[in-house]
Amino acid sequence: MFSKTTEYALRAVIYIAQKGTEENKLGLADIAKAIHSPRSFTAKILQQLTAGGKIISSVRGPGGGFYISAKAKKLPVRSVLSVMGEDVKLEKCVLGLKHCSEEKPCPMHASYKLIKPLIIDLFESKTIEMLANEVSAGKSNIGNL
Amino acid sequence: MFSKTTEYALRAVIYIAQKGTEENKLGLADIAKAIHSPRSFTAKILQQLTAGGKIISSVRGPGGGFYISAKAKKLPVRSVLSVMGEDVKLEKCVLGLKHCSEEKPCPMHASYKLIKPLIIDLFESKTIEMLANEVSAGKSNIGNL
DNA sequence: GTAATAAAAGATAAAAATATCCTTAATTAA
DNA sequence: TTAATTAAGGATATTTTTATCTTTTATTAC
Is CATH 3.30.420.10 the right assignment for the domain spanning A4-136? Predict the structure, then answer.
């Protein structure tokens, strides 16, 4: 559904929300290991998520690392997709038409439009915090082996 | 949702189903122009769809070209995804976990499993022919400008 | 200050997806 | 049989995605 980059981003954000706090920041090595993502590549992704204080926060130096504010935890999962530039994917025409609309639809349009809102809602209604809590409660996991 | 390659494949198959018959085969140039796909790249995709007589058929030489049998027209759209190796995408874990199941789910699993069958059904219930007829009836299009 | 730590930033590298071109094989018509 | 036509096949090129490595900057502790 999403690129590997975005999958790593989602897992990382959920992990940081689950394990980290401003008092207990998480290091890159810790995060990459926990979500089974390549370390250096994950660094780049975390930079994207940090840029402009959009989703996660970071501090350099000893005791530094990544964390996510209580406020940011309330953001919908979709906001992560948005930072990664993949929320547009949800809106895209199934056949890849540049102009696919009610007025000029592709042959999949009519049926796809019925479920598209459900897919979008999937990422809009769930917050980062909700997913992190799922993992904390032992109901689910983000490891990958 | 799908790769550009698969988007071209879907558009090409629908176009061939709509305009071509065994008596009136369609040439590569015609197809590529109609669906606004790069000509040579489309040739490779049509080869994939032709291989083993899976979806479309082809004949070389003058008067040759591509067409799709009446029987193949009845195939679900999903069969095209399958040939292009993208039907697995529909089954994949949203967070990219290798092992995401009821027993060991990711935090998106529970909500995603509610709509996944709808997405799959979208491509399983529609046949190539149904989409082609939509276009023939003027209800939709597969051009791209 | 200096040394140590950890993320940011930049430069490359490798792999996969997308795209083009040239040659070969099959088919038809003259 | 020769020429023309059209897809198949193979080689190569370009772009994007994924990944790694090195250097720089910020922060902390001493």
Answer: no
Q: Which of B32, B22, B102 shows the shortest CA–CA distance to B65?
A: B22
φ, ψ (nearest 5 deg) of residue B62? -55, 135
Domain ranges of chain A: 4-136
d(CA B12, CA B33): 10
What distance in Å separates the CA atoms of residue B28 and residue B5, rounded to the nearest whole number? Answer: 16
Query: Exposure of B24 by Cβ count < 10 A (0-12 exposed, 13-18 middle, 19+ buried)?
Result: exposed
Kindly report the number of other CB atoms within 10 A of residue A50's CB atom. 15
Residues A42-59 have pLDDT tens digits of 999 999 999 866 799 999
Higher local confidence (pLDDT), A82 or B54:
A82
pLDDT digits (tens, 9 = 90+) for B125-138: 999 999 999 999 99
Please tell me the predicted confidence (pLDDT) of residue A13.
98
Chain B residues within 8 Å of chain A (Cβ atoms): 1-2, 4, 7-8, 10-11, 14, 77, 89, 92, 94-99, 104-112, 115, 118-119, 122, 126, 130-132, 134-135, 139-145
pLDDT at B52 > cutoff 70: no
3-state secondary structure of A20: coil
Contact between residue B36 and residue B69 where contact means Cβ atoms under 8 Å apart = no
